Automatic annotation (TrEMBL):
Protein's name according to its UniProt entry: ACATN protein
Matching InterPro entries: AcetylCoA_trans_1-like, AmpG_permease/AT-1, MFS_trans_sf
Gene Ontology MF term list: acetyl-CoA transmembrane transporter activity
Source lineage: Eukaryota, Metazoa, Chordata, Craniata, Vertebrata
Any single Gene Ontology cellular-component annotation: membrane
Pfam hit, one: Acatn
Entry keyword set: Membrane, Transmembrane, Transmembrane helix
The species this protein was found in: Fregetta grallaria (White-bellied storm-petrel)
Residues spanning the membrane: 6-22, 43-67, 87-106, 118-139, 151-175
Compartments in which it is found: Membrane
Gene3D superfamilies for the chain: MFS general substrate transporter like domains
Length: 238
Protein backbone atom coordinates (compact mmCIF):
# COMPACT_ATOMS: atom_id res chain seq x y z
CA UNK A 1 0.00 0.00 0.00
CA UNK A 2 2.87 2.32 0.85
CA UNK A 3 4.61 1.72 -2.50
CA UNK A 4 1.32 1.93 -4.42
CA UNK A 5 0.43 5.30 -2.82
CA UNK A 6 3.79 6.95 -3.51
CA UNK A 7 3.93 5.39 -6.98
CA UNK A 8 0.58 7.03 -7.75
CA UNK A 9 1.79 10.38 -6.33
CA UNK A 10 4.96 10.12 -8.43
CA UNK A 11 3.01 9.41 -11.64
CA UNK A 12 0.49 12.21 -11.03
CA UNK A 13 3.07 14.89 -10.18
CA UNK A 14 5.35 13.92 -13.09
CA UNK A 15 2.40 13.99 -15.51
CA UNK A 16 1.31 17.42 -14.22
CA UNK A 17 4.85 18.76 -14.69
CA UNK A 18 4.93 17.38 -18.26
CA UNK A 19 1.56 18.95 -19.12
CA UNK A 20 1.70 22.28 -17.28
CA UNK A 21 5.40 23.30 -17.20
CA UNK A 22 6.61 25.15 -20.30
CA UNK A 23 10.15 25.97 -21.34
CA UNK A 24 11.20 29.62 -21.34
CA UNK A 25 12.13 30.18 -24.99
CA UNK A 26 13.29 33.77 -24.45
CA UNK A 27 16.40 32.67 -22.56
CA UNK A 28 19.41 31.89 -24.73
CA UNK A 29 21.10 28.64 -23.65
CA UNK A 30 24.74 28.85 -22.58
CA UNK A 31 27.31 27.46 -24.94
CA UNK A 32 28.23 23.84 -24.28
CA UNK A 33 31.46 22.13 -25.23
CA UNK A 34 29.83 18.80 -26.10
CA UNK A 35 27.29 18.01 -28.82
CA UNK A 36 26.80 14.28 -28.43
CA UNK A 37 27.63 11.13 -26.50
CA UNK A 38 30.95 10.55 -28.31
CA UNK A 39 32.13 14.10 -27.61
CA UNK A 40 31.08 13.78 -23.97
CA UNK A 41 33.13 10.61 -23.41
CA UNK A 42 36.14 12.11 -25.19
CA UNK A 43 35.86 15.13 -22.90
CA UNK A 44 35.55 12.90 -19.81
CA UNK A 45 38.65 10.97 -20.86
CA UNK A 46 40.61 14.20 -21.31
CA UNK A 47 39.45 15.37 -17.84
CA UNK A 48 40.47 12.09 -16.17
CA UNK A 49 43.97 12.31 -17.72
CA UNK A 50 44.66 15.59 -15.89
CA UNK A 51 47.20 14.93 -13.05
CA UNK A 52 45.21 16.87 -10.42
CA UNK A 53 41.97 15.01 -11.27
CA UNK A 54 43.79 11.64 -11.15
CA UNK A 55 45.18 12.44 -7.70
CA UNK A 56 41.78 13.59 -6.44
CA UNK A 57 40.04 10.49 -7.83
CA UNK A 58 42.62 8.27 -6.09
CA UNK A 59 41.95 10.16 -2.85
CA UNK A 60 38.16 9.81 -2.88
CA UNK A 61 38.29 6.19 -4.12
CA UNK A 62 40.34 5.13 -1.09
CA UNK A 63 39.39 7.68 1.61
CA UNK A 64 36.43 5.66 2.93
CA UNK A 65 38.19 2.30 3.30
CA UNK A 66 38.70 2.96 7.02
CA UNK A 67 34.96 3.48 7.62
CA UNK A 68 33.63 0.64 5.46
CA UNK A 69 33.30 -2.03 8.16
CA UNK A 70 31.72 0.32 10.70
CA UNK A 71 29.25 1.73 8.16
CA UNK A 72 28.21 -1.54 6.52
CA UNK A 73 28.41 -4.15 9.27
CA UNK A 74 27.53 -2.46 12.60
CA UNK A 75 23.76 -2.62 12.11
CA UNK A 76 23.90 -6.27 11.01
CA UNK A 77 26.05 -7.22 14.00
CA UNK A 78 23.68 -5.47 16.42
CA UNK A 79 20.77 -7.46 14.96
CA UNK A 80 22.89 -10.62 15.24
CA UNK A 81 23.44 -9.85 18.93
CA UNK A 82 19.68 -9.67 19.51
CA UNK A 83 18.71 -6.02 18.96
CA UNK A 84 15.26 -6.07 17.27
CA UNK A 85 15.33 -4.78 13.69
CA UNK A 86 12.20 -2.68 14.29
CA UNK A 87 13.92 -0.88 17.20
CA UNK A 88 16.92 -0.01 15.01
CA UNK A 89 14.51 1.19 12.32
CA UNK A 90 12.77 3.45 14.86
CA UNK A 91 16.13 4.96 15.84
CA UNK A 92 16.44 6.18 12.23
CA UNK A 93 13.40 8.47 12.68
CA UNK A 94 15.13 11.06 14.94
CA UNK A 95 18.00 11.09 12.42
CA UNK A 96 15.77 12.61 9.69
CA UNK A 97 15.59 16.18 11.10
CA UNK A 98 19.31 15.96 11.89
CA UNK A 99 20.03 14.96 8.26
CA UNK A 100 18.03 17.99 7.06
CA UNK A 101 19.68 20.48 9.41
CA UNK A 102 23.29 19.26 9.12
CA UNK A 103 23.92 20.29 5.46
CA UNK A 104 22.58 23.78 6.23
CA UNK A 105 25.01 24.17 9.14
CA UNK A 106 28.01 22.51 7.46
CA UNK A 107 27.61 24.48 4.20
CA UNK A 108 28.70 27.64 6.07
CA UNK A 109 32.11 26.05 6.65
CA UNK A 110 32.47 24.62 3.12
CA UNK A 111 31.57 27.83 1.27
CA UNK A 112 35.10 29.28 1.54
CA UNK A 113 38.14 28.85 -0.71
CA UNK A 114 39.16 25.49 0.85
CA UNK A 115 36.04 23.29 1.28
CA UNK A 116 38.10 20.09 1.66
CA UNK A 117 39.46 21.31 5.01
CA UNK A 118 36.15 20.22 6.58
CA UNK A 119 36.58 16.79 4.93
CA UNK A 120 40.05 16.34 6.43
CA UNK A 121 39.02 17.55 9.90
CA UNK A 122 36.03 15.17 10.04
CA UNK A 123 38.03 12.09 8.97
CA UNK A 124 39.84 11.28 12.26
CA UNK A 125 36.59 11.65 14.23
CA UNK A 126 34.81 9.27 11.87
CA UNK A 127 37.66 6.76 12.24
CA UNK A 128 37.37 7.00 16.04
CA UNK A 129 33.62 6.39 15.76
CA UNK A 130 34.45 3.15 13.95
CA UNK A 131 36.25 2.01 17.11
CA UNK A 132 33.29 3.20 19.19
CA UNK A 133 30.93 1.13 17.00
CA UNK A 134 33.17 -1.92 17.52
CA UNK A 135 32.93 -1.34 21.29
CA UNK A 136 29.14 -0.97 20.94
CA UNK A 137 28.87 -4.37 19.23
CA UNK A 138 31.05 -5.95 21.96
CA UNK A 139 29.01 -4.23 24.71
CA UNK A 140 25.59 -5.24 23.35
CA UNK A 141 25.48 -8.83 24.73
CA UNK A 142 26.77 -7.55 28.10
CA UNK A 143 23.66 -5.40 28.71
CA UNK A 144 21.07 -7.74 27.20
CA UNK A 145 18.54 -9.22 29.65
CA UNK A 146 15.39 -11.31 29.38
CA UNK A 147 13.15 -8.31 28.64
CA UNK A 148 15.42 -7.05 25.87
CA UNK A 149 17.70 -4.03 26.26
CA UNK A 150 17.57 -1.16 28.80
CA UNK A 151 16.58 2.36 27.74
CA UNK A 152 20.08 3.74 28.37
CA UNK A 153 21.45 1.28 25.77
CA UNK A 154 19.20 2.75 23.07
CA UNK A 155 20.20 6.27 24.17
CA UNK A 156 23.89 5.35 23.66
CA UNK A 157 23.11 3.84 20.22
CA UNK A 158 21.13 6.95 19.24
CA UNK A 159 23.93 9.30 20.31
CA UNK A 160 26.49 7.16 18.48
CA UNK A 161 24.41 7.30 15.29
CA UNK A 162 23.94 11.06 15.67
CA UNK A 163 27.70 11.66 16.02
CA UNK A 164 28.29 9.38 13.04
CA UNK A 165 25.83 11.40 10.95
CA UNK A 166 27.67 14.64 11.81
CA UNK A 167 31.01 13.27 10.59
CA UNK A 168 29.41 11.60 7.56
CA UNK A 169 27.63 14.77 6.40
CA UNK A 170 30.69 16.93 7.10
CA UNK A 171 32.66 14.81 4.63
CA UNK A 172 29.78 14.49 2.15
CA UNK A 173 28.95 18.21 1.97
CA UNK A 174 32.65 19.11 1.76
CA UNK A 175 33.18 16.80 -1.24
CA UNK A 176 30.05 18.13 -2.98
CA UNK A 177 31.17 21.73 -2.35
CA UNK A 178 34.66 21.01 -3.71
CA UNK A 179 33.25 19.27 -6.81
CA UNK A 180 31.00 22.25 -7.51
CA UNK A 181 33.88 24.68 -6.98
CA UNK A 182 36.38 23.03 -9.35
CA UNK A 183 33.96 22.07 -12.13
CA UNK A 184 34.32 24.09 -15.33
CA UNK A 185 31.04 26.06 -15.88
CA UNK A 186 31.03 25.25 -19.62
CA UNK A 187 30.95 21.53 -18.90
CA UNK A 188 29.67 21.77 -15.32
CA UNK A 189 27.13 18.95 -15.57
CA UNK A 190 29.61 16.52 -17.16
CA UNK A 191 32.42 17.46 -14.78
CA UNK A 192 30.22 17.27 -11.67
CA UNK A 193 28.73 13.93 -12.73
CA UNK A 194 32.19 12.44 -13.22
CA UNK A 195 33.48 13.57 -9.82
CA UNK A 196 30.26 12.59 -8.01
CA UNK A 197 30.29 9.16 -9.67
CA UNK A 198 33.86 8.54 -8.51
CA UNK A 199 32.88 9.79 -5.04
CA UNK A 200 29.94 7.35 -4.91
CA UNK A 201 32.17 4.49 -6.07
CA UNK A 202 34.64 5.41 -3.32
CA UNK A 203 31.87 4.83 -0.77
CA UNK A 204 30.32 1.71 -2.31
CA UNK A 205 33.22 -0.59 -3.17
CA UNK A 206 34.77 -0.62 0.36
CA UNK A 207 31.34 -1.43 1.90
CA UNK A 208 30.85 -4.29 -0.57
CA UNK A 209 34.30 -5.70 0.24
CA UNK A 210 33.65 -5.31 3.98
CA UNK A 211 30.39 -7.28 3.72
CA UNK A 212 32.10 -9.96 1.63
CA UNK A 213 34.86 -10.32 4.25
CA UNK A 214 32.52 -10.65 7.25
CA UNK A 215 32.25 -14.46 7.04
CA UNK A 216 35.94 -15.29 6.38
CA UNK A 217 37.11 -12.94 9.16
CA UNK A 218 34.54 -13.99 11.78
CA UNK A 219 35.90 -16.33 14.46
CA UNK A 220 33.35 -19.02 15.33
CA UNK A 221 33.27 -21.68 18.00
CA UNK A 222 31.27 -24.91 17.83
CA UNK A 223 29.49 -25.76 21.07
CA UNK A 224 29.75 -29.49 21.79
CA UNK A 225 31.83 -30.35 18.73
CA UNK A 226 35.52 -29.93 19.45
CA UNK A 227 36.72 -31.33 16.13
CA UNK A 228 34.66 -28.90 14.08
CA UNK A 229 36.11 -25.48 13.33
CA UNK A 230 32.87 -23.90 12.01
CA UNK A 231 35.11 -21.76 9.81
CA UNK A 232 33.14 -22.52 6.65
CA UNK A 233 29.39 -22.49 5.96
CA UNK A 234 29.36 -26.28 5.45
CA UNK A 235 31.21 -26.91 8.76
CA UNK A 236 28.84 -24.58 10.62
CA UNK A 237 25.80 -26.44 9.26
CA UNK A 238 27.30 -29.82 10.30
Amino acid sequence: DFLFFWGAVFLITTTLVALLKKENKELTPTKEETKGITDTYRLLFSIIKMPAVLTFCLLILTAKVGFSAADAVTGLKLVEEGVPKEHLALLAVPMVPLQIILPLIISKYTAGPQPLNTFYKAMPFRLLLGLEFAFLVWWTPQVKHEGGFPVYYYVVVLLSYALHQITLYSMYVAIMAFNAKVSDPLIGGTYMTLLNTVSNLGGNWPSTVALWLVDPLTVKECAGAREQTCGTTVAAEV
